[in-house]
Amino acid sequence: MKIVIAPDSFKGSVSAMEAAIAIEKGIKRYLTDAQTLLIPVADGGEGTLDSLVAATGGKRVPVTVTGPLGSPVAAEYGLLGDGKTCVIEMASASGLYLISPEERNPLVTTTYGTGELIRQALDDGCRRFILAIGGSATNDGGAGMLQALGMKLLNAKGEPIGFGGGELQQITAIDDSGFDRRIAEASFLIATDVQNPLVGPNGASHVFGPQKGATPEMAASLDEGMSHWADVIEAKTGMRIHDRPGAGAAGGIGGAFQAFFPAAMRRGIDVVIEYTGLRDALQGADLVFTGEGQIDFQTASGKTPMGVAQEAQKLGIPVFVLAGSIGRGISELYQYGITGIHSIVNAPMTLQEAMQRAPELLEERSEQVLRTYDGKARLS
Questions:
Q1: Residues 55 and 85 in one domain
Q2: Could you give the 3-state DSSP secondary structure of residue 137?
Q3: How far apart are the C-alpha atoms of 63 and 18, rounded to whole Å?
Q4: Structural domains of the chain, count
Q5: Residue 85 is inside which H or E element, if any?
Q6: Are residues 257 and 292 in the same domain?
C-alpha cells in the first residue's frame, strides 16, 4: 500500500516534518511494508520556508533584522535548491510569535524587518521571491517594509513618519526616488489564503487587528489610517487598492506588494503543492494522511488539509485528516475530498499536555485510523 503523508505543522507543538514522522510510525506499526512518502506542507504561513527548503534541497540564510517592536531579532530567509529562488516567511522578521501578548500593539508594530530581509536577499543576488505572509504582528500597510527598501513616507513637515499603523494618517507624500531599483528586475509570488480588502469592515484592521492586540476603538482608528494610506498610494500610483482582494493580507502588506512590486498573489497551499512535488507523489497512492492543529470552518478558506484533499480528490484517493482539535463547521469540508476527520486527543487532558504529547498521539491515531480503514476495505 502506498500512503502519502502530507501534514502541516501543529503550531506550538510539532513541525510538519515531525508530524509526518509520527504518522509514519503509526502506519508502520500496523503495515510494516507500507510504502510511505513524507511531504511536509504548509499554506503560506509558518512552516512554508521549512517545507520548500526541505523539498528542494535548499538552505537557510540567517539575517539580523529589525523586529516588530523595533529591536533586533534573528531572522532568516530560505534559498531553494535552484540557488536563485528566495523564500521569506514574513513572520520570521515581523511575526506575532516574536512578541508577548502584553506587547501586542498594531499602532506601533512595523514590517521594517521584512523589508530588510528582502534587501539582504537582493544583495545576495536573489531576483525571484516567494513571500509567505501569514502570522504577522503588524497593521502598517507595508509602510515599514517600503521604508527599509528606500521609500520615504513623509508627513506635512516633510519628515519621515515613524513605525506602526498609528503613523499612517500622518503620510502626506511618497518619495520613491530612493526605492530599491532592483525590485523592478525581480518577481514576487505572494503566498496567502487571505482575500480580504485593505479597508472597511472586512479589511485588515477590523478582521485581523484584534488578534494583534487592537481594541475596537483602535481597530477603527487603524482602519481610518489605512484608508488614508490607500488614498495617498492612489494619488501617487493611480492604483486603487482600498477594495482589492488580498490587499488586506498581513496587516495590509498585500496592498503594498500590489501597488509597488511586480507581484502576483496565489493561494499559499497551491504554491507549496507545486514546489514540493505533491501532485507527482500522489500518482498511484492508495491513501493520504494530512492534518494540522485546528480543523474548523476556516479550513475551507485554503488551509493545508483542504488543499491536499482537493489534489487527492482529482485522483479518487481517500484522505484522512488528523487534528489536535476539531471546531465547528467541519461538515462542509467533506465536499472537498476529505474522507474522515479525527482528533488525536484520546482522553481528557489539558491543551498543554496534548501539545507535549502530540507525536505520541499522532502515532496512535494514525495506526487506529489505518486499521479501521483497512479492515473495512477487506470486508467490502
A1: yes
A2: coil
A3: 25
A4: 2
A5: strand 85-89
A6: no
Question: Which residue carries 514540493 as its cell?
Answer: 276
CA neighbours within 13 Å on the CB side: how many for 264? 7
- Which of 209, 227, 192 minimizes the C-alpha distance to 302? 192
* The domain boundary residue, chosen from 238, 268, 298: 268
CA distance 67 to 107: 15
* 13 touches 46 (CB < 8 A): no
Per-residue pLDDT of the chain (380 residues; tens, 9 = 90+): 999 999 999 887 898 999 999 999 999 999 999 999 999 998 887 889 999 998 899 999 999 999 999 999 999 999 999 999 999 999 999 999 999 999 999 999 999 999 999 999 999 999 999 999 988 999 999 999 999 999 999 999 999 999 999 999 999 999 999 999 999 999 999 998 788 999 999 999 999 999 999 999 999 999 999 999 999 999 999 999 999 999 999 999 999 999 999 999 998 889 999 999 999 999 999 999 999 988 888 787 778 899 999 999 999 999 999 999 898 888 888 998 999 999 999 888 888 888 889 999 999 999 999 999 986 665 55
Closest CA to 181 of 119, 138, 225: 119
In this structure, what C-alpha cell is assigned to residue 375?
A: 479492515
Residues 258 and 352 in one domain: no
Closest CA to 136 of 86, 99, 187, 102: 99
117 with 256, same domain: the answer is: yes
Give, to the nearest 10 degrees, the angle between helix 268-276 and helix 304-313.
60
